[in-house]
Amino acid sequence: MTSGIVNGRERFKQHLRKVGSGEHTSKGMSREEAADALHLMLDGVASPAQIGAFLIAHRIRRPEPQELTGMLDTYRRLGPVLTSAEGQRPPLCFGMPFDGRTRTAPIYPLTTLVLLACGQPVVLQGGNRIPIKYGVTAIDLFRILGLDLAGLSIATVQEGFEQTGFALIHQPDHFAIAESLIGYREELGKRPPVASLELLWTPHQGNHLLVSGFVHPPTESRAWEALKLAGETNLLTVKGLEGGTDLPIGRACITARVQQGQAERLILHPRDHGCHAADVEWSDETAWTEKALAALDNRGPLLDALRWNAGAYLWFSGLSDSLESGLQTADGVLKTGQALQCLDQLRSWRSHLSIR
Fold first, then answer.
1. pLDDT 10s digits, 217-242
2. How many CA atoms lie within 13 A of 232 on its CB side?
3. Long-range Cβ pairs for the range 269-274 (8 Å, 24+)
4. Which residues are 195's β-sheet partners?
5. Are the CB atoms for 19 and 61 separated by under 8 Å?
């Protein structure tokens, strides 16, 4: 065992003592300490026993904003990077749980296609099905729509982003070092603090609107503070379906726009815009595919949810000057088949890669 590993494990032991000393004596780590702790875990310097103890202790105590910022620093330093081409609109970068969806039908792949048809770039990220939910993920949903985005190099994703305005960062392909912590989710049976980090991180560097899902109000306020420390100046937080960024149509939508550190609460009512209905449940891939393609063809049970989400995000992105205008634009895109055309164009782009 090298002295570097010994020193690293001793250093990690100090971080572990801070988060695992009990309710009355545990202390928050500094931003720099949290960044170092995550780096030591990802590099495999910390032992499995240390990593498991840290993750569960940190979950019980709850990460503090500066700790999340430090972890985000490590993700930014070690993870993949995307940049926009000169003159490209700032993208919408969506942060949602990496362990997927199991209860409600996802809307975000369809919203993405409407946004792309309107000229609004989109960045998504995620992985394969992982603990604790093993829910359906972005890579799955696009695959069953006929768009296989697995196995692409980061250079190819960057090239595609510049050409099409769309990028999907797939963790196994583009951030393999982060895969090393997935097994701990299964062993612990709980989402570790890195799951909160996944909602805050985006591989895109530069001007963008970061959209982050949340479930509980304390999670949202921590995200505001952590991202403020990280220098994110344009943020939208969404109490979406299953902690993601899909806006519900079965209830009021609780969102907040944070610009230059100032938060403005926005509560949207789908009922006021003719989009109110029960949120469609997830059943299986076959049923979802039929409903998804129908919605892109301006019909079926997912149409209201797609219209609502696409219209709202067109407004949030600044492509529409009001929510009502965004909904009208989404209507037009769906009625004229432009979203389906966009899907065909992405399929063609992917097919071209296979024969180059």
1. 888 999 999 999 999 999 999 999 99
2. 30
3. 270/304, 270/308, 273/308, 273/311, 273/323, 273/324, 273/327, 274/304
4. none
5. yes
Structure tokens at 308: 């609502």
Nearest to 37 by CA among 45, 25, 48: 45
Query: Against a cut of 0.90, is the pTM above it?
Result: yes
Cβ–Cβ under 8 Å, residues 209 and 77: no
Compute the Cα dihedral for 65, 205, 128, 119 and give only its sign: positive
Spell out a b/e string for 28-62, using b for 16 or more CB atoms within 10 Å of the CB, else e. Answer: bbebebbbbbbbbbbeebbbeebbbbbbbbbbebe
How many angstroms separate the CA atoms of 127 and 130, rounded? 8
Ordered structural domains, the chain, with CATH: 3-61 (no CATH), 88-342 (3.40.1030.10)
Residue with tokens 């032991």: 13
Per the DSSP assignment, residues forming a β-bridge with 93 are 123, 210
Q: Are 137 and 288 in contact (CB under 8 A)?
A: no
Packing angle of the helix pair 48-61, 31-42 (nearest 10 deg)? 140
Is residue 51 reached through a cis peptide bond, with omega within 30 degrees of 0 on the bond before it?
Answer: no
Contacts of residue 355, defined as CB under 8 A and 6 or more positions apart, other chains included, come to none
Which residues lie closer than 8 Å to 34 by C-beta, 6 or more apart?
15, 63, 66, 67, 68, 69, 70, 71
| CA-based torsion, 293, 298, 299, 300: positive or negative | positive
Distance, in Å, from the CA atom of 305 to the CA atom of 311, rounded to the nearest integer, reads 10
Segment 308-350, tens digit of pLDDT: 999 999 999 999 999 999 999 999 999 999 999 999 999 999 9
Rounded (10°) angle between helices 108-117 and 303-317: 50
Measured distance CA(117)–CA(94) in Å, rounded: 17
